[in-house]
Amino acid sequence: MAKAVLTVNNLQVAFAARPIVRNVSFQLRPGEVLGIIGESGSGKSATCLSILGLLQGAKVQGSTQLLGQELIGLNAAALRQIRGQKIGMILQNPASFLIRSPRSNANSSKLCYPIDRSQTPLPNRSRLNS
Q: pLDDT tens for residues 38-93?
């Protein structure tokens, strides 16, 4: 069996003294996709944002390892190097990207990740013109 890409062990998130996420544990192996579902306010976003190191003001405990590297406790600069390159999150309503043109989707992405068009591989550039 392939080694886990992402391992979350006993993840706990709290704001002040109020627990938001309790004892979340899972492993993702290469090729697997994880969907986190639940009622509004059940801690889905808090779980994902804490894994990405984006949950400010929260007390995060447990272990979150990406490719064997512990993420909890990493400094902001190290986390920036990882986010978007090795780990990411698709927010609610990703279907809105399916009804737009490739150019429109690419333009939306530019707002988040500015990329020099000259550095885009040629096959991808031709798709942008669709």
A: 888 889 989 999 999 998 889 999 999 999 999 999 998 999 889 888 888 877 66
Amino acid at residue number 90: I
Calculate the alpha carbon distances from 9 to 91, 98, 101, 115 in Å.
23, 34, 40, 35
DSSP string, 64-122: EEETTEE-TT--HHHHHHHBTTTB----S-GGGGTSS-HHHHHHHHHHHS---GGGS-H
Q: What share of the chain is helix, strand, coil (3-state, %, to 5)?
A: 30, 25, 45
pTM for this model (two decimals):
0.67
Q: What are 33's two structure tokens?
A: 């996709």
